[in-house]
């Protein structure tokens, strides 16, 4: 089948990622982007879990009632592809596949994949930042040129990444960063501080997830501002889905998965936004 629109969602076998795929399929028919058949790549590290997620969506009662999927007469197909954003080789393989299948480019990338680990030590810090910061950054930089004119790139960050947890001087450094290398140097400084046992003296919290998401929000805003100068109409934004009831929040979240998916889906389909390089939560622009 020839598809008019193509999207990819990372970390989509469960939780918010699965909700994003589901709500993209439900919302696309009424979106202004709708100009024909729609393909969504649901990606995940584990192939068996990814394939199971596809089976779950194909039998989803709401999708069937809405006749959203092509199997029920709708516009959308959902296909699984393996992707581990902690691996440069995996990112490169997926990018090569997408470029081969869609040489004209794709329309939407939602970088949802991320990890939240218990404890605080060097292993937790390096693993968390490798996925949440460097992995998402690599996905962003590799796929941004592959987005069509008017495309949308959404990086799912977190309110945990707001800067009120940092020293005044460190917060100023975050806000003053005006390039990807500058933001990356802050992440590297955090890692070196953890190694040396001086990160708190350097103004960082003892929280790998929070620091990774602070860096992600910051670098996404930088890339979004840079992209806005290129005249392609591509919007790059960061967003927080909220405190969602998922495995990552150990079931303590107050939002449903569908509620958590709302902001990233609306940004992806152009129902909110219009500007690049912003941070969103609850469908509104927020202070980082």
From TrEMBL:
Assigned keywords, A-Z: NADP, Oxidoreductase
Domain of life the protein comes from: Eukaryota
Molecular function in Gene Ontology: oxidoreductase activity
Keyword Transit peptide: no
Cited Pfam families: adh_short
PROSITE patterns named in the record: ADH_SHORT (PS00061)
Keyword NADP carried by entry: yes
Family, as annotated: Belongs to the short-chain dehydrogenases/reductases (SDR) family.
Name of the protein in its database record: Carbonyl reductase
Originating organism: Rhizodiscina lignyota
